[in-house]
């Protein structure tokens, strides 16, 4: 018989039982459900709402149950509806009346909010530690590549010379912001909901601050209606995770084309590549492609939750049970993607010669030539036009700026002197860029040291 069956005179349709049931996915919350119940029981006893004897029995059997579930000794009966009912039912089977007191001053509505907040807090910590590991890996590769020049692109056209380290550090900035966003979400999740009851608290003199303290929450929620109907923190987490996937997906896209025969910038290790069932020569970057692909479902989960919440009147409505699968799926997907991406990137080989070739055989020094003229007094817009003419001439004659003679330079501007050839050298321009954020070796090295120190 269902715990809430008192006012019913008929059984639910079998279909309804199956439809309503969330145990098969929300059972992953068991640890938080039990820890939350232990704190609740301790508070009830402290406030003399249940006896010391009940407290002892309940705390012991909750701990025993946790251990039994940890060890795989509990098979959840699908009759139980959800994890909250399952825990209470098993306790009742095991210790009888004391267990029937556990739900005093509590509803599944504030209970599920507590469980989800505890889950989100724990998972945020896990995702942050995975990102830090990725950051560490990226920065270690960057350290070895502060001299490895490569083309920097805009519009996928060679633009100005940067280094492989500088390119990796662009991603480290994105992942640092991801950590920041997660920490911010953590702050708003760290507010304890228990005590709101179903929607309007209870008539007992409960101590919510005590529960918050036991469960390591910074604050308690301030409005009971909001408490049981707030899923902002879930949406924020889903958003943070979607942005992480967007970053991983962009990076994956680069890995994919860098590894192509057209680019040959890197080699992805065999460990992180797969073959074709038909074409014997193929070595495919499936890992990077799958990460790019899985970004779709993580975006989808965010959209799903925004949509679920958009028309729900206060306070709790069952629609909100839909938060679980979306959240669990995004969390699990993102954790797996960060971890496998870290493995993949840590085993790539960088083709320094190919990257250098791509820089030398290019017009990426054109901006430096324009700035050379400006330093000699030419207005920038005129300098831009002059160098543009020179590039046009080179394109027609199938050569690069460094192949032109001094008299060819002088035909365009008398300001050109012999020192132009130093400017045309592939690393000269980059090495003159001394400001923060520049690709220059020393600046990138300093950045790497600072960030390695920060994530320690
Ligand atoms: N399984 C439910 C959920 O995930 C728990 C809360 C149910 N509350 C209720 N009154 N039906 O949202």
TrEMBL record:
GO terms for cellular component: cytosol. It comes from the Bacteria. GO terms for biological process: L-arginine biosynthetic process via ornithine. It is an enzyme of class 4 (lyase). Residues 6-300 form the Fumarate lyase N-terminal domain. It catalyses: 2-(N(omega)-L-arginino)succinate = fumarate + L-arginine. This is Argininosuccinate lyase. Its EC number is 4.3.2.1. Belongs to the lyase 1 family. Argininosuccinate lyase subfamily.
């Amino acid at each position: 018989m269902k715990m809430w069956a008192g006012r019913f005179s008929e059984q639910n349709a079998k279909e309804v039982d199956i439809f309503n049931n969330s145990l098969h996915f929300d059972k992953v919350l068991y640890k938080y459900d039990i820890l939350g119940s232990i704190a609740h029981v301790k508070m009830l006893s402290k406030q003399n709402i249940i006896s010391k004897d009940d407290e002892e029995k309940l705390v012991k059997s909750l701990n025993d149950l946790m251990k039994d579930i940890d060890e795989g000794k509990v098979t959840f009966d699908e009759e139980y509806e959800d994890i909250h009912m399952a825990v209470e039912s098993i306790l009742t089977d095991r210790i009888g009346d004391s267990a029937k007191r556990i739900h005093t001053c509590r509803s599944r509505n504030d209970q599920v909010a507590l469980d989800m907040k505890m889950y989100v807090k724990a998972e945020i910590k896990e995702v942050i530690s995975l990102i830090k590991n990725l950051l560490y890996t990226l920065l270690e590769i960057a350290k070895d590549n502060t001299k490895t020049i490569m083309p920097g692109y805009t519009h996928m056209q060679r633009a100005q010379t940067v280094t492989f380290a500088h390119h990796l550090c662009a991603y480290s900035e994105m992942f640092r912001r991801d950590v920041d966003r997660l920490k911010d979400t953590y702050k708003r999740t760290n507010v304890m909901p228990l005590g709101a009851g179903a929607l309007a608290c209870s008539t007992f003199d409960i101590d919510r601050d005590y529960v918050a303290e036991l469960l390591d929450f910074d604050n308690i929620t301030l409005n009971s209606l909001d408490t049981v109907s707030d899923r902002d923190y879930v949406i924020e987490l889903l958003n943070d995770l979607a942005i992480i996937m967007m970053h991983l997906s962009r990076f994956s896209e680069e890995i994919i084309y860098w590894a192509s025969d057209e680019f040959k910038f890197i080699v992805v290790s065999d460990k992180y590549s797969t073959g074709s069932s038909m074409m014997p020569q193929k070595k495919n970057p499936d890992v990077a492609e799958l990460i790019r692909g899985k970004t779709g479902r993580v975006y989808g989960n965010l959209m799903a939750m925004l949509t679920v919440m958009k028309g729900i009147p206060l306070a709790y409505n069952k629609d909100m049970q839909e938060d679980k699968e979306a959240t669990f799926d995004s969390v699990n997907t993102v954790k797996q993607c960060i971890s496998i991406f870290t493995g993949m990137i840590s085993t790539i080989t960088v083709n320094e010669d190919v990257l250098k070739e791509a820089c030398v055989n290019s017009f990426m020094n054109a901006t430096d030539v324009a700035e050379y003229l400006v330093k000699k007094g030419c207005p920038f817009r005129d300098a831009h036009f002059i160098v543009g003419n020179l590039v046009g001439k080179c394109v027609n004659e199938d050569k690069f700026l460094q192949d032109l003679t001094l008299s060819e330079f002088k035909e365009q501007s008398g300001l050109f002197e012999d020192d132009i050839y130093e400017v045309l050298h592939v690393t000269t321009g980059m090495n003159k860029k001394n400001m923060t954020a520049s690709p220059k070796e020393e600046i990138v090295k300093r950045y790497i040291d600072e960030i390695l120190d920060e994530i320690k």
